[in-house]
Write a structure and sequence with these properties.
Blueprint lengths: L3 H11 L5 E5 L7 E2 L3 E2 L9 E2 L3 E4 L9 E8 L13 E5 L11 E4 L3 E4 L2 E4 L9 E2 L10 E2 L3 E2 L2 H9 L4 E5 L3 E6 L4 E2 L10 E2 L2 H11 L3 E4 L7 H9 L6 E5 L10 H7 L3 E5 L3 E2 L5 E5 L2 E6 L3 H19 L10 E5 L10 E9 L2 E4 L8 H6 L2 E5 L11 E6 L1
Parallel strand pairs: 6-7, 15-18, 15-19, 16-17, 19-23, 21-25, 24-26
Antiparallel strand pairs: 1-14, 2-13, 3-12, 4-11, 5-7, 5-8, 6-10, 9-10, 20-22, 22-23, 24-28, 25-26, 25-27, 27-28
Bound molecules: adenosine monophosphate and magnesium ion (MG).
């Protein structure tokens, strides 16, 4: 049995980034930018007014000074001439500042009669002009890799990139195993239950940039499992669920080995999730998760999402750990790292009373996994503990 950290390190060593593709800007949100992009222009490309007002020369801006308005500069329609002594140009936000002017006096501080304006201020310390290149200059870079946020998309657009080179979405094949399972919507016969894990994992993985495919349920026999493995062709990551313990019907490791799985590890010192296995299987990485619904989803957060990060082209990192203050006592932990279903509200965290790894209703009510290190002693209210946000 290896530690969670060792298991993650081995997975990071196996995981490879997928290849890249060009993606239109309109489809690129949430994708991972594969290579830095350089601005194809300077922004703003010219000195621009940040206010509606009058452009003039600040050395002339005395209180009650008068100017003749000789023209107008609007966004997209600049003023062609030059602002001379005693002259001003009516200007609007985003419009180019005409030559000869070095400040914009806002319209509220000006009195206008016909073509004549009188200043009601002499304070021009704020020029109300955005200099050319204030946002970014030609050739300035957006770094990669990064998961593209809406702000990144706007910046890339502003840099005049209509499409971006991004990593493909890693393809994940999700395989439920078990004679007792039926898909949601099918009426279960006696002794049967609904396959739920694959649906939760698909939602989790797709929320983090994967394309997840739910395959037909593999039955607990060699031929059925081999058939379903054959359908995983083309996947970057194959995830099996269940059949990974040591029961008579737990044949996943055996069948996968027969199909060429180079197993890296089996069994991790964690709760829930002990019977986890992983290895290389042809071109794909294979991870075998335990069947209990909570175990599978906890392993999804602790292992699948960090692996997906690497496959998506991002740097390797474990699930982010936050801290909160315990609001109820906890007994001492055993030898395995325990991921307890818990609720965090305003920095206070408490573990759910029922921690059975089959209880999806408890997991759905929780918003955190409270982490107990191996052999952690009893904890009292007020202690600081770590958790992963769900
Ligand atoms: P196993 O690891 O195959 O022994 O499964 C452990 C427990 O998880 C059993 O009670 C299974 O019925 C249940 N289980 C396995 N796979 C799934 C699944 N895809 N959805 C819901 N429950 C499952
Ligand atoms: Mg089973």
């Amino acid at each position: 049995m290896i530690s969670v950290q060792d298991a993650l390190d081995q997975l990071f060593a196996l995981a490879r980034p997928v290849t890249t593709e060009l993606c239109p800007l309109t489809e690129a949100a949430g994708r991972v930018l594969a290579a830095p992009i350089a601005a194809k222009l300077t922004q703003p490309p010219f000195a621009a007014s940040s206010m509606d007002g009058y452009a003039l020369n600040s050395v002339e801006a005395d209180l009650h000074a008068q100017f003749v308005v000789i023209g107008e500069s609007a966004a997209g329609h600049g003023f062609e001439g030059r602002v001379g002594a005693g002259q001003a140009v009516r200007i609007f936000t985003g419009a180019p500042v005409p030559e000869g002017a070095d400040c914009v006096v806002i319209q509220e501080e000006v009195e206008r009669r016909g073509k004549l304006i009188t200043l009601l201020t002499e304070d021009t310390t704020k020029s109300n002009i955005r200099p050319a290149g204030q946002d970014f200059g030609l050739g300035d870079e957006m770094s990669a890799p990064r998961r593209l946020t809406p702000s990144d998309i706007a910046l890339a657009a502003s840099m005049n990139h209509p499409e971006l080179c991004v990593f493909k979405r890693p393809v994940v094949a999700l395989v439920s195993t078990g004679d007792e399972l039926v898909q949601p919507g099918e009426p279960p016969a006696e002794g049967q239950i609904i396959a739920s894990n694959t649906y939760g994992l698909k939602a989790l993985l797709e929320a983090h940039g994967a394309e997840a495919r739910i395959l037909p349920i593999a039955r607990d026999n060699r031929a059925s499992l081999e058939t379903v493995f054959a359908l995983c062709d083309g996947a970057d990551l194959i995830v099996t669920i269940g059949g990974a313990s040591v029961g008579d019907h737990d044949i996943v490791a055996d069948v996968a080995a027969g199909l060429g799985l180079q197993q890296s590890f089996y069994k991790v010192a964690m709760r829930p999730g002990k019977p986890l296995m992983a290895g290389q299987m042809g071109a794909a990485l294979m991870i075998g998760l335990p069947g209990n619904p909570v175990s599978a989803l906890v392993c999804g957060h602790v292992f699948l999402l960090p692996v997906l990060r690497v496959m998506s082209g991002l740097t390797a990192a474990p699930a982010e750990r936050l801290t909160a203050t315990l609001s109820a006592p906890l007994p001492a932990n055993g030898p395995r790292e325990h991921y307890m279903r818990a609720t965090v509200t305003q920095g206070q965290i408490s573990a759910e009373t029922r921690q059975d790894s089959a209880l999806l209703s408890v997991l759905a009510a929780a918003n955190a996994l409270l982490i107990r290190p191996p052999h952690d002693g009893a904890r009292a209210p007020g202690d600081t503990v770590e958790y992963i946000s769900l």
